[in-house]
Automatic annotation (TrEMBL):
InterPro entries: Com_YlbF, YheA/YmcA-like_dom_sf. Signal peptide: none annotated. This is UPF0342 protein FC56_GL000690. It comes from the Bacteria. Belongs to the UPF0342 family. It comes from Lentilactobacillus senioris DSM 24302 = JCM 17472. The lineage of its organism: Bacteria, Bacillati, Bacillota, Bacilli, Lactobacillales. SUPFAM superfamilies: YheA/YmcA-like.
């Protein structure tokens, strides 16, 4: 039975996912995450920041404005994160993965860009 075009694209995306896991960028991110996670204080701070960030995003998606206290808490946590070498290393490695994903996105969406250019 012939695969539908959408199924073929999803199959290709699954292969791309597997390939991404084998890139140096992802391997370095995984290593940096493991290093950060091994330091309990760093990991707890990281989890706290993720929770605050998620709550802010939920509020914004619901059309609500975050309170001044919530914004201050997020800002204070972000300032603390920047002072922790394991977390800054993780953020740098995440940025490298995001750059790779951006390049992949440009390739994948090129037909759409070309369509609108012509």
């Amino acid at each position: 039975m012939e695969l539908k075009m959408a199924d073929k694209i999803m199959e290709t995306a699954t292969e791309l996912q597997k390939e991404l896991k084998n890139t140096p960028q992802f391997e370095e991110l995984k290593q940096a995450y493991g290093n950060m996670k091994a330091d309990t204080k760093s990991f707890d701070l990281f989890k706290d920041f993720q929770e605050v960030q998620l709550n802010l995003q939920k509020k914004q998606m619901a059309g609500m404005e975050p309170s001044d206290d919530e914004l201050k808490q997020a800002h204070d946590l972000a300032s603390q994160l920047e002072k922790v070498p394991a977390i800054t290393e993780l953020m740098n490695k995440e940025q490298a993965v995001n750059q790779l994903l951006g390049q992949i996105n440009q390739v994948v969406t090129e037909p759409i860009s070309d369509l609108y250019r012509n």
